[in-house]
Amino acid sequence: MPAHFDPTDLPTDVQELIHRAIHRLWDNDLVAFPTETVYGIGAHAARPEAVRKLFEVKGRPAHHPLIVHIPGAEWMTQWAQDIPQTAWDLARAFWPGPMTLILKKLPWVPAEVTGGQDTVGLRVPDHPITLALLYAFATSGRPGRGGIAAPSANRFGRISPTSAEDVLEELGTHASVILDGGPCKVGIESTIIDLSRRTPVILRPGAISPKRLAEILGKAPAYGSEYPDPNAPRVPGTVTAHYAPRTPTRLMSMPEILAYVDNHPNERCGILAYTLPQNMSSTHIWRMVPPMPEAYAHELYGALRKLDRRCADQILIETPPEIPEWDAIRDRLTRAAK
Ligand code: TXA
Ligand code: MG
Predict the structure, then answer these.
(1) Cα separation of 57 and 298, whole Å?
(2) Cα of 307 from ligand 1 centre, angstroms
(3) pLDDT tens digits along 160-174
(4) Of the candidates 207, 202, 214, the residue with the CA atom closest to the CA atom of residue 102
């Protein structure tokens, strides 16, 4: 058993729910679980018919690859081949944690999981309930094939859930079990690093910054967008409009927001801001978020979800600072506002 958790530390009702979740997964049903980033909705990753259910429930196009969640780095060899030393080094530094590694897949890994590509995304999430679930699941059946394939537990294109209530709002009863692990610590999705090419490339920015990756890799990996490669894995989840509220959403600087609301007196705006303006007109719905990137990320999706519920004419989001510490947030906001 991995040293980083002990399932018997969990309350007995949670242990029972985990037990039930494992049975549901074996029956090809879907189970929602907490992680430190966002909540996931998972299926037995070795069962194509279970994985297909995920796509139906999410309304997600079938060629989008999924991340396989495993209980520890030692499970990498069950899913991937040609694993470079950098994968082991990154895993030792950041797992369990908000990092996904893209590696060459083993032949048996179902095409439903990988979007038909020859790579697989692997991640060890940092949440005691989910580590207990993953460990118990991975050791309950055919050795090595007990990973859980899971996208974020939202409908395709929508805001990722950061609480069990959000999961219920997004997916209703489609999840046969929802494990409630409280609010997500990080609040935005994992950093995705592609290690299947000659050089590591970041496919999706996240909580693990290029600077921290550089401490392990010797230099900061490039962003995939700056490193075009026709043979590179596709990351469909990062090219379309994503993380989006239903309300039309735009990014603007604070002076632009103030000018906009002045010029549109008949509109009611939901405004997500991190700098306090001098004049907060009460016609509008203001949500203040902290001006530090980690604390901002923690609040972001919940704040957007709340603004979205208020039926404003528009959501105006204050443009985040143009510095690397805000890359992951800027990425999500740009997609939310597409
Ligand atoms: O933090 C997270 O990563 C969360 C939690 C639940 O673990 N999961 C998550 O999953 O964000 P999802 O499905 O919403 O986003 C997964 C992203 C997609 O953009 C997908 O295209 C990319 O990972 N991905 C997965 N496997 C891949 C592969 N083999 N090659 C390239 N991209 C891959
Ligand atoms: Mg997602």
Answers:
(1) 26
(2) 26
(3) 999 999 999 999 889
(4) 202
Query: Two tokens at 135?
Result: 């460990």
Distance 159 CA to ligand 2 centre (A): 8
Query: What is the Cα–Cα distance from 301 to 107, expressed in whole angstroms?
Result: 37
- In order of 10, 126, 127, 314, 324, the CA distances from 336 in angstroms are 36, 26, 26, 12, 19
Q: Closest residue (by CA) to atom 12 of ligand 1?
A: 151
pLDDT digits (tens, 9 = 90+) for 12-62: 999 999 999 999 999 999 999 999 999 999 999 999 999 999 999 998 888
Q: Which residue, judged by its Cα, is nearest atom 18 of ligand 1? A: 237
Give CA–CA dist 102/123, Å, rounded.
9
Which has the closest alpha carbon to 58: 22, 24, 32, 36? Answer: 32
286: helix, strand or coil: strand
Q: Put the strands of the sheet holding 314-318 in their side by side order.
A: 249-252, 314-318, 269-273, 285-288
The amino acid occupying position 89 is D
DSSP state letter for 270: E
Q: What is the pLDDT of residues 220-270, one digit of tens each?
A: 999 987 655 555 556 655 556 778 899 999 999 999 999 999 999 899 999
**C-alpha 315 chain-centroid distance:** 22
Judged by DSSP in three states, 212 sits in helix
Ligand 1 atom nearest to CA at 150: 6
| Closest ligand relative to 242 C-alpha | 2
Which residue in the block uniquely carries the two structure tokens 């060890």? 124
330 backbone dihedrals φ, ψ, rounded to 5°: -60, -40
Q: Which atom of ligand 1 is nearest to the CA of 98?
A: 1
Query: What tokens were used for 286?
Result: 């203001």
